[in-house]
Amino acid sequence: MEVNKINQKFEILSVEKKGLNDFVEIKEKSMLIKGPKGKKEVSIEADRYERSTLDSFAKGMLKGTLTLASGIYYPFLVMGYGAFSGAINSYLAAKDVGVDKENRMKVACLGGVLKGLDGVKHGVIDFFNIALLTTAGAMLGGPIGGILGATIGGGIYNIVKDKIMQMAEKKK
Q: At 100, is the pLDDT very low, low, confident or very high (cuts 50, 70, 90)?
């Protein structure tokens, strides 16, 4: 008799709980968070293109400098930043649309994981391209050439990458 009561209580609890699929719809570059107060879209894209060429160059120089400073750990830095910002943005969006506290944490974890994975993907691509430019610069100009290859080359690489991303987005 006791077992039946426990099973009934468990069934009631499992019916009342809502899954993550009730609150989140994952799209290509964003998550749509749904709640009692409406819907909100959160970006899960780790590397967006910059609007101006100067901003793109500055971001590329920063990537080059970080690659020089951190070495092979650069993709993990990008992943950590992406995961942190994805979790915070997802949590705040879920709070705005009225999702309960337990499911807000689940939405935040999902946003952090998705943006972190996108960050590590872009971090690996950036690392290998900037490492190639650093090696070429060091071969041509010694240590100073290596530093310039990473910073200036990283800026030029980021401009080219952003232009390619803009053209790909226009084709869609």
A: confident
